[in-house]
Amino acid sequence: MMDYFSPVAFILVALVFLAMVRLVRGPTPADRAVAVDTVNTLMVAVLILLGVVYRQIIFIDVAIVYALLSFVSTLFIAKYIGGDL
Amino acid sequence: MIAEILIVACLAVGSFFNILGIIGLLRFPDVYTRMHATTKMTTFGSVFTALAVIIYGVTAYLDSVNSQYAVLAIHTLIAAVALAFTNALGSHAIARGAHRAGIKPVQAVVDRLEEVGP
């Protein structure tokens, strides 16, 4: 079976760099928070794909923990932007 | 063979929707429309790439009865579910914080949420 997963992983890493453009340029802090959230989502997908490419199950577990921790950090950044902290 | 076609289709749909989400993030005018693009598109695309990995794991497990592939499929399913729930909640929290910080949508003339109160 051919390897279909690594080209998609390359595409998603390129999209991460494009999201970094909004992270640098974004006029308001909320724009940067949205860009960070997007980068986190894409990195979870890249980790899942790399777990198949390199045949390491531990990458998938790292992806689960990364998703939950990035959710917590997103919630705290949103609280800070809203002025609740 | 059918599984291979399904994997390629899921990967194509996933990368297509991720590309659409990043285009929306770069092109839309304010926070709320950018969030509208990125949240739904990247969640849908990432869940579809995870679905391709799940199909790969299940078919490889059925071909060679090796429990490593079943572990791959189950852990990927858990990751996809965690992604789908946390992404929606986090984006709702960012939208609420942006509104409380006083960021208005571009060309907004009326703000009903501000009239109602916090």
Task: Report on the architecture of this protein.
The complex is a heterodimer of chains A (85) and B (118). Chain A is mainly α and 85 residues long. Chain A has one domain (2-82). Helix content of chain A is 84%, strand content 0%. In chain A, helix 2 packs antiparallel against helix 3 (58-82). With 118 residues, chain B is mainly α. Chain B has one domain (2-102). Chain B has helices at 2-27, 31-63, 67-100, 112-116. In chain B, helix 1 (2-27) runs antiparallel to helix 2 and helix 2 packs antiparallel against helix 3 (67-100). The radius of gyration of chain B is 19 Å and the shape is elongated. Chain B starts with a helix and ends with a helix. Chains A and B meet through helix 1, helix 2 and helix 3 of A and helix 1, helix 2 and helix 3 of B.
Instruction: Tell the overall outline of chain A.
Output: flat
Main sheet specs of chain B: none
Integer tally of domains of chain A:
1
Low-confidence stretches of chain A: none
Give the count of structural domains of chain B.
1
Largest sheet of chain A: none
Count interface residues per chain for the largest interface.
Answer: A-B, 47 and 49 residues
Number of strands of chain A: 0
How much is the radius of gyration of chain B in Å? 19 Å
Low-confidence stretches of chain B: none
Q: Count of DSSP helices of chain A?
A: 3
Rounded to the nearest angstrom, the distance between the terminal CA atoms of chain B is 56 Å
What's the helix-strand series of chain A?
HHH
* Number of β-strand runs of chain B: 0
Pairing-aware structural class of the strands and helices of chain A?
A: mainly alpha
Overall pLDDT confidence of chain A: 91
